[in-house]
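Per reviewer request, we include the raw input and output of the structure prediction for the construct analysed in the revised manuscript.
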Amino acid sequence: MSRPTLDPVVWVVNSLSRWAWQQMVRLAGKGLKHTLFAPLPWPSAVMHLYSISRDAALGTVGVVLLVAVLRSMWPELALPGLRLPLPVVLERLLTAALMATAGIWAVRMMLTLNNAAVAAIIGGAGSLASGAAPQGSLSPLAVLLTALALIGIVLYLAVFYAARMIELYLLTAAIPWFAMAWAAFGDDRAIGNLLRELVVVVFVQTLHAACFWLAVQLVGSRSLGNSTIFLEVALFWYMTRVPAQFRRLAGAGWGVTRLWR
């Protein structure tokens, strides 16, 4: 007749594995939906910051126009980067003023579309895992390490989304200045990179929600047995790679998502 083990190490590992798994379920099941996949807050301070940035950028229109007029009157006046003819500068200044005025609303429309997509995906995802730790062929140590890995990845993603929020606010406030620089210098690369970076920063949440939905479907598949939790870890790790892959696909050249390669 076998007797229950009295090894304190085994008891500690068993207890830690159950506790870590419960924390992972709580963090991933509820925390993700209320933090990582929650709509991005848009405080009034961001609107105020954008208004200041827009007004300051529009205040440079007179300077750019004056320089363009001087160059049209005296072509020999060479200024680095300011080589566009006056009609082109006037046309670009008008376009830049429209971009500076409507830029924040374009970003908010993208956020609305992203939030609707995320809500639709997450709403049908269901629960990530049950509260009980996996049993069977998996040892308590394997369960513990798996739970800790998932918790670490979720915390990593939480830091990423905090940086994403700050970057989105700053990039939105920079739209008027990039528009004015595009009008004055005629370089399309900077404004193009800004717009692509905004697309990546906004819609990366939709791709992460799709990965989460797939993880839930794998966990719910009984045919995969205990291998589902390892697939779960792999999918959550892949979520850390999504920003870099998305930015390469979009052709974005800089931004905080570049740090997550």
